[in-house]
């Protein structure tokens, strides 16, 4: 269970967006944009790849909304999960569907069971600045496993912009804001971790690292491909 939660938390980090357009600086809402995040374990070995594809971009009630398809494969190239979520923006704030906080493997594992999902979307303002505090986000999932109920809760708190730094990834070098947050996950067991993301205006989250309660790295991710 601990390994599963660590993987979940790292995948959550990768859901932070990429690219820039007139509506959003930190999530891709241009139809046809594709990007790839490679996930690494605590020993810095590749453990999986997530390919994202922006589809069905439309306007609704003054907001721009896009569907993000994601396909996850393991280190051997075997597909693990295929899912989607929505992102919207109004020119000032990007709102990321709280369902994006769920590891796609959960949908594959519990997809045939009855479940309910609720929560508060993850928000990203276009005007990031050092010292800024960002809103919390929460997800709650109730699963009926043949008469046995299981609950999962994810709370994202202490979201702060703490500085700036230049980061190099396989996709290039970028001047980034550094953001941190605390994640508390309860799913049978409870685990609290911290994470750090490097966000750039042009490409979004180009690097992410997660840490356990003792400050040891539990995993990381890097932007490895981008097409628009």
Briefly summarize what is shown.
The protein has 228 residues and is mainly β. The protein has one domain: YmcC-like fold, CATH 2.40.360.
Summarize the structure in words.
- By secondary structure, the chain is mainly beta.
- The chain has one domain (2-227): YmcC-like fold, CATH 2.40.360.
- Helices cover 9% and strands 62% of the residues.
- It has helices at residues 2-14, 104-110, and strands spanning 34-41, 46-60, 63-74, 79-89, 93-96, 114-120, 122-125, 133-134, 137-145, 148-169, 172-187, 189-200, 204-211, 217-227.
- Strands 1, 2, 3, 4, 5, 6, 7, 8, 9, 10, 11, 12, 13 and 14 form a 14-stranded antiparallel β-sheet that branches.
What's the layout of helices and strands?
Blueprint: H1 2-14, E1 34-41, E2 46-60, E3 63-74, E4 79-89, E5 93-96, H2 104-110, E6 114-120, E7 122-125, E8 133-134, E9 137-145, E10 148-169, E11 172-187, E12 189-200, E13 204-211, E14 217-227
Antiparallel strand pairs: 1-2, 1-14, 2-3, 3-4, 4-5, 5-7, 6-9, 8-10, 9-10, 10-11, 11-12, 12-13, 13-14
Radius of gyration: 17 Å
> At CATH's second level, what is the architecture?
Beta Barrel
Helix content: under 10%
* Annotation field: number of helices: 2
Low-confidence stretches: 1-21
Q: What is the oligomer described by this structure? A: single chain
Number of structural domains: 1
